[in-house]
Design goal:
- About 75% of the residues lie in helices and about 0% in strands.
- It has about 170 residues and is mainly α.
């Protein structure tokens, strides 16, 4: 049996997330990409060693996909798309990442940035599936098609968004 759990983020929560977003942007602009990636990877490794509930582990799998995507030379992210993913990864600092409350906070933030990067993540997952059945030339064509789809869907979503969460994620550069 499974149970669905949901919660609402109130104005104070959104303000807290906006403050994190502003700090995140400073980190994303001032730290080298390798340091941001290493910090997020350390957070993921800490979570993988922890005894976490299944729904929390599932969120961390999205972080794993983001890390794979940003480091995949065949995916060939544009500079702008790579920066979006780095902005998301910058949310995850390895400091105190092993405390249960920080692990849960990170899981919530992973959920939020994954929602905003869902077109990117979906396209990348489709690309990874295509690797198994496409030759190199066809894979390059498939990558181009998937990235165009990703951009089109992202623009559509941004044009229709007006929520407080959208404002927070916009601060993240997502």
């Amino acid at each position: 049996m499974s149970v669905r759990v949901s919660f609402n983020l109130d104005d104070a929560d959104l303000e807290h997330l906006a403050a994190i977003a502003q700090q995140t942007q400073l980190r994303a602009r001032n730290e080298p990409a390798d340091a941001i990636i290493a910090g997020a990877r350390e957070v993921l490794e800490t979570a993988n060693r922890a005894q976490l509930a299944g729904f929390v582990k599932e969120r961390y799998s999205h972080l794993d996909t983001m890390l794979q995507m940003v480091g995949d030379p065949q995916w060939q992210l544009s500079a702008e798309d790579r920066q979006r993913v780095l902005n998301a990864l910058a949310c995850f600092s390895s400091s105190s990442a092993d405390s249960p409350s920080v692990l849960l906070d990170h899981a919530i933030m992973i959920e939020l940035v994954s929602r905003d990067l869902h077109h990117d993540l979906d396209a990348y997952r489709d690309f990874c599936k295509s690797r198994e059945s496409y030759d190199e030339r066809k894979l390059a064509e498939r990558r181009k098609t998937l990235q165009e789809r990703m951009h089109k869907r992202r623009r559509r979503d941004l044009d229709g968004a007006a929520s407080g969460l959208r404002k927070v994620l916009t601060l993240l550069g997502l």
